[in-house]
Design brief:
8 helices, 4-stranded antiparallel β-sheet, alpha/beta, 2 domains, 6-stranded mixed β-sheet, Rossmann fold
Length: 257
């Protein structure tokens, strides 16, 4: 379980990237984290993997208090996590199989009995079994992302964090990647996806948490990408209503009217 209580993250300039964020994510939940550029999505992900430390507030992840977690225990904590980076970060001179196995190597698990089986299972789960000997430059963008996901799940994490996993991918490939993350979630892994991809959020209809100016402005159990909270405020001031069907302006009938 993830628990955040009144989390503030401020930088040297005094600017608050996160302002009083309170949020609970139960085990096995699937959450889309949405919001505009500078809303605080990337900062929140960095706090959850203990890449950065909150200025104040409480962050509990899998029973660990990340504010007080000693630096020496951070590597062991991260072994419970899987991370898919926006820029993928595959090693260009290593094969897909070697890239996936790297996650085991940094955790000291690569020499264990069955390590090769773990790599094979992760690659099979993401549909990359036939690509073990290929190099990243021989893969499409979607295939590179699948390889990155295999690397993230090879240690059987309890929490998977993905930062813009569909960025720059065609719509059909984006949907395949999100479906793959959904399949991983159904295996009992908590999944948090930071995204700007309106289409996949609206098709999945999973939990949506919106950040705006470092604050949680919306938390919908079966949410849509929708309009940002700040934009909704402008529309509402003009007499508009925001419901399941989206935005309705005064005197304008919706498409289903």
């Amino acid at each position: 379980m993830i628990i955040l209580r009144n989390v503030i993250k401020a930088y040297g300039s005094g600017k608050q990237a996160l302002s009083g964020v309170t949020l609970t994510v139960p085990n096995e939940d699937f959450v889309f984290l949405v919001g505009g550029n500078g809303a605080g999505k990337s900062t929140l992900l960095k706090l959850l993997i203990r890449q950065e430390v909150a200025t104040s507030g409480v962050i509990m992840v899998a029973g660990h208090d990340l504010k007080t977690l000693p630096d020496r225990r951070v590597p062991a904590f991260r072994q419970q996590l899987g991370v898919v980076f926006q820029d993928i970060r595959l090693f260009p001179q290593q094969t897909v199989e070697e890239n996936v196995a790297f996650s085991l190597r940094v955790a000291g698990m690569d020499r264990r009995v069955g390590a090769r089986d773990l790599v094979a299972e992760a690659m099979d789960l993401v549909g990359m079994s036939g690509y073990a000997r290929r190099f990243p430059h021989q893969l499409s963008g979607g295939e590179q992302q699948r390889a990155a996901i295999a690397r993230a799940i090879v240690r059987s994490p309890t929490l998977l964090l993905a930062d813009e996993p569909t960025a720059s991918l065609p719509p059909d490939v984006s949907w395949q990647i999100i479906e793959l993350l959904g399949a991983i979630n159904r295996r009992g892994v908590t999944v948090i996806v930071a995204t700007h991809d309106r289409d996949v959020v609206n098709r999945m209809r999973r939990r949506v948490v919106e950040l705006d100016a470092g604050m949680v402005t919306r938390d919908d159990r079966f949410g849509r990408f929708g309009t940002t909270a700040s934009e909704q405020g402008v529309f509402k001031a003009q007499g508009a209503e925001w419901g399941e069907g989206g935005l309705t302006l005064p005197g304008v009938q919706g498409p289903n009217a």
